[in-house]
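Hi everyone,

Forwarding the result from last night's run.
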Amino acid sequence: MSARHEEIRENLEAVQQRILAAATAAGRGVDEITLIAVSKFFPIEDAQSLYELGIRDFGENRDDEGASKSVLLPTDARWHFQGQIQSRKISSIMGWADSIHSLDSLEHAAKCERALIEWGENREFFIQINLEPQRRDRGGIALDELPQFLQSTEKFSQVRPVGVMAVLPIAADPRHSFETIATAASRCGLSKLSLGMSGDFEEAIASGATHIRVGSSILGSRPTPA
């Protein structure tokens, strides 16, 4: 067993203990929470170690990384695309990602629909919420646009969102922000919440998160992308 594998095992166990504590405090079961190990920019060997340690859900932000890594793990691994969608990459993303956490426009929804009809498969979609709509570099839709956006997706047969995803602004109060998002999603009939990362997943769990996306707390400081 390599030193790196042991490091990942220790980090993963610590995160799992934090999840258990947060879930218990919220009166929830750990089986209600999907831990997505964010393996972006890390080598495939780290993902393989996580798989050996029981992890089945992996998050990637770039299509090329997800496409190359997904074929190197057993087929029961589940891959989550959580990066900003690029139109030219949609067909490829639909080929390897089981869940897309960053649906952010009807144009992209229509292209995902066409790609999925071509693939003949279904995918799980989360609508990305942008809590900083004044920033053009942030993907996602404003929270008050969620009901209208969701209604507009009803014309699609393959792209039927099941939840929302958000990345909090640095200065945001996590608990308040997560609860605001959870309330808006519930009012729209969306049951899944992809909320919380290494620094705030306990607050996300307390607010009802069903999916948490954890990278650095498990794998350490992210390497510089190639």
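The chain has a mean pLDDT of 94.

Cheers,
N.
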